[in-house]
Write a structure and sequence with these properties.
- The structure is a homodimer of 355-residue chains.
- Chain A has 355 residues and is an alpha/beta fold.
- In chain A, 48% of the residues lie in helices and 9% in strands.
């Protein structure tokens, strides 16, 4: 895929008519208006995305994008790089939070190798799309070529299109990648000009001295690579990573197929900012699953003027927050199609004058 | 049931050994320690309640207690009293938020008529335990006799015991009752001495002038009835209502059978305070599902030193917040029994030194 093709990808607006019809429907239900809080907002969002005020219960596909980062050699994580491969393998075997959360909400799962170092065992869950075994170290040069950045985006666009063809209507989007809070912080700083002091956090829990070191590494990556804030593909190629590009591609692909895409924590939300910079219309299709405990997450949510659905103190990634929130989006759809109005109950609506 | 029998009801402490074993198990899992936030707290709570560090997936029974309030004649609600009966009927027919939320999380449902005015149609979901057609008006005298208060508590104890016998291990607890934010505010003030100015809220959305009127009504109820703050049964009988007593009974019954009970919004939380005053040990078995938008809810949560799980802007009652949170308690149990440790993955735990 070329950059021009990507930007020309047709993303329609969501349906204002369906949103209005959904709002009216909610207001006619046998309960005080507005009494279902955020679930009503989600129902209206879903109706707009699906162009349908009574959408059928949407099936959920949980996608976890996996990739390694050359910047790991700067010791920005407490943990060895092999964690990416080990956890990716565990996704395929079952028994991770990604698997259990998906099973709990009835979501189908998919594990995409975008650039893990080392081999992953064959599995029906695995989608093998390895671009390269890890990005280059951003503290020493660009993470990837522009061609590789386009390839990462294409992986995601393809996965969203396939999810659509397979009948899924919600994509819950997460990731695994050792050192990827560093890459995401760099990308956030690159895209917005916000200082790394604000975008770098503790990741999986580094001590304060190591966080200060992470800030230095990100500062170096930005100075060295000079990403162009108004060129999102340039920022992605210079600051990485493969799984971040693939998530941005999934968001773009989901929007182009009128799927709702539910975003996980800090890294996935940075990928949503990236996707929004490539095509602002994707914002209409994105829902933000939860507020992560990672420092920069509140900041990137602010950049997107987004309010996350859940706040459960999660800071794992793997799509955990997105998967739980996706289940609430599905529930909100069943409120639209399955809930009785006072008319159905053959009784006048006593709540109709309620604020 | 007599008051002495009630207070003698044996409620064991939860198991500290199982809590400790669950914490250790969580810490050994293939992820950074503490990275599943509130879900880890819930897992530890559940392990203590079930005396089992790897509890099987608990089945959920959602119970909605229904009752009318004599204080409705003081015009403390925007809506006619018949709403209680209409919504209770709707629970039996399906298509309410109570039904849809329960279905979404796979919870079994039960609708208990504790004192609805008028008849409810026969239904396999209905448990008919009507004490009387609505309480008396608390602005004119006591809501009920002490015998009726004991009867209300007994209904709940029975429902918890039956849930236990039927194999349910989580009870999600909600209510419907026109004007019951007034009764709950009165009971909260009666039990704590906190001024009605603080405990009375907007309920289903009354305007400010009507909220001020509600405060006057509650003040009158307290002055007239002189509830004894150190006698919870006295407070219940004087300030009501039947469904509030039945919820308190369910909490006591659940604790006596080592069930986890998940509490809904303001009214259910006041019933939890009542239950805790009858037997403080029940607190170890209660989980608070969500933060309601009703004013007094934060206050009663503070009285119980409780942190609610979800904050979705719900203000409906019907057990909606409790049902969603109950599903998270169930998920937390599957984290204990279904999640891989690094040992399972045959790989050293790189996260073991993580804070």
């Amino acid at each position: 895929m070329r950059q021009a093709e990507l930007q020309a990808l047709d993303i329609p607006h969501v349906s204002l008519e369906a949103r209005t019809a959904a709002k009216r429907r909610l207001d006619e239900q046998a309960r005080p208006q507005g009494s279902l809080g955020i679930l009503e907002d989600l129902a209206i969002t879903a109706a707009g995305i699906y162009h349908d005020a009574t959408p059928p219960l949407p099936k959920i596909r949980a996608v976890v994008m996996c990739g390694d980062h050359g910047v790991a050699e700067e010791s920005v994580s407490m943990f060895p790089q092999v964690v990416t491969r080990n956890i990716s393998k565990a996704f395929l075997q079952g028994g991770t939070a990604f698997n259990l959360f998906s099973q709990h909400v009835g979501a189908d799962t998919e594990v995409v190798d975008c650039g893990v170092i080392g081999d992953l065992p064959p599995s029906p869950l695995l989608v093998q799309r390895k671009i390269r075994s890890g990005t280059h170290n951003i503290a020493k040069g660009p993470a990837m070529t522009v061609e590789e950045a386009m390839q990462a985006l294409s992986i995601g666009i393809e996965r969203a299109q396939i999810a659509h063809e397979q009948g899924f209507r919600i994509v819950a989007l997460g990731e695994i990648g050792n050192s990827n809070t560093t890459a995401a912080a760099a990308l956030l700083s690159g895209l917005t000009g916000i200082s790394p002091v604000m975008t770098v956090g503790k990741g999986t829990g580094v001590p304060v001295w190591q966080k200060l070191h992470k800030i230095n590494v990100v500062n170096r990556a930005i100075t060295l690579n000079s990403p162009k804030p108004d060129d999102p593909i340039d920022c992605l190629s210079k600051l990485g990573g493969f799984e971040i590009g693939a998530m941005a591609g999934t968001i773009i692909g989901a929007a182009s197929r009128s799927l709702c895409v539910v975003i996980d924590g800090f890294i996935a939300t940075v990928s949503a900012l990236l996707a929004t910079r490539i095509n602002p219309r994707v914002r209409e299709y994105t829902v933000f699953g939860h507020l992560s405990a990672e420092t920069g997450h509140g900041l990137v949510l602010q950049c997107l003027e987004a309010t996350p659905i859940l706040d459960l103190g999660l800071r794992l990634g793997e799509g955990t927050g997105a998967i739980l929130a996706a289940s609430l989006v599905a529930l909100s759809c069943s409120l639209l199609s399955g809930m009785a109005s006072f008319e159905n109950l053959h009784t006048p609506n006593p709540y109709e004058h309620c604020d």
